[in-house]
């Protein structure tokens, strides 16, 4: 009797494991359709040299990248959100940046760049060295939250890092000027 119960329980256990594993054996997991690798560099300045007018444009500049095997030339512009400082370390909360391609430069100095294709990524928490001086930006929690044109349905996660230099500047609306070599990498999904 004990042997019969052991065999029946073993069979039920094997059947339960097989049921759980069957979907994975039949159709292996696949990446979200339309995902492409994305790497880019941007030569950003503060104040932004490529304002898009979508957020407060603090940092921005020309962007050069690869989306899958496609070369992209565009712009980057945005901000770190609310800056908090703890000694020599700064933290940006709620940052928002937009990557635009197929852009038209402003006709007059008081207008912004316009781009037919763009995606916006948010950086909930970024860490950087407190300016002025040389520093490094780390915003490796970036998430694509929206887009236009061919990026209308874009999603994905990005790592955003890079060295910067900033110096006091009374002529700047932000009280400082600077240069940032932004490095972006990750996946962009839902690209048309």
Describe the protein.
The chain has two domains: 1-30; 32-188. The protein starts with a helix and ends with a strand. The chain is globular and about 80 Å long. The chain has one helix spanning 2-26; strands at residues 36-46, 59-67, 70-79, 82-86, 89-104, 114-129, 133-138, 142-148, 157-168, 176-188. Strands 1, 2, 3, 4, 5, 6, 7, 8, 9 and 10 form a ten-stranded antiparallel beta sheet that branches. Mean pLDDT is 86; it is low at 20-31. It is built from one helix and ten strands, in the order H-E-E-E-E-E-E-E-E-E-E. The protein is mainly β and 192 residues long.
The total of beta strands comes to 10
The gyration radius over C-alpha positions equals 23 Å
Helical residues, percent: 10-25%
Structural class: mainly beta
- Major beta-sheet overview: 10 strands, antiparallel
Strand proportion? over 45%
Order of helices and strands: HEEEEEEEEEE
Gross morphology is globular
Number of domains: 2
SSE blueprint and pairings:
Elements: H1 2-26, E1 36-46, E2 59-67, E3 70-79, E4 82-86, E5 89-104, E6 114-129, E7 133-138, E8 142-148, E9 157-168, E10 176-188
Antiparallel strand pairs: 1-2, 1-10, 2-3, 3-5, 4-5, 5-6, 6-7, 6-8, 7-9, 8-9, 9-10
Keywords:
192 residues; mainly beta; 2 domains; ten-stranded antiparallel beta sheet; 1 helix; globular
Give a short overview.
By secondary structure, the chain is mainly beta. It has one helix spanning 2-26; strands at residues 36-46, 59-67, 70-79, 82-86, 89-104, 114-129, 133-138, 142-148, 157-168, 176-188. The model is unreliable at 20-31 (pLDDT under 50).
């Amino acid at each position: 009797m004990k042997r019969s119960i052991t065999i029946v329980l073993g069979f039920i256990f094997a059947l339960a494991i097989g049921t759980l594993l069957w979907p994975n054996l039949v159709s292996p997991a696949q990446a979200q359709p339309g995902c492409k690798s994305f790497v880019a560099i941007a030569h950003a300045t503060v104040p932004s040299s490529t304002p898009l007018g979508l957020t407060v444009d603090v940092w921005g500049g020309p962007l050069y990248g690869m989306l899958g095997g496609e070369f992209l030339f565009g712009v980057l512009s945005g901000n770190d959100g609310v800056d908090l400082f703890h000694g020599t370390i700064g933290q940006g909360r709620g940052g928002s940046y937009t990557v635009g391609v197929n852009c038209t430069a402003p006709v007059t100095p008081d207008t912004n760049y316009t781009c037919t294709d763009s995606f916006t990524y948010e950086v909930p928490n970024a860490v950087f060295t407190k300016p002025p001086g040389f520093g490094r930006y780390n915003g490796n929690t970036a998430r694509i939250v929206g887009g236009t044109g061919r990026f209308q349905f874009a999603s994905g996660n990005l790592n955003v890092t890079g060295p910067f230099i900033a110096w006091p500047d009374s002529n700047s609306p932000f009280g400082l000027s600077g240069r940032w070599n932004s490095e972006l990498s990750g996946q962009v999904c839902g690209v048309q």
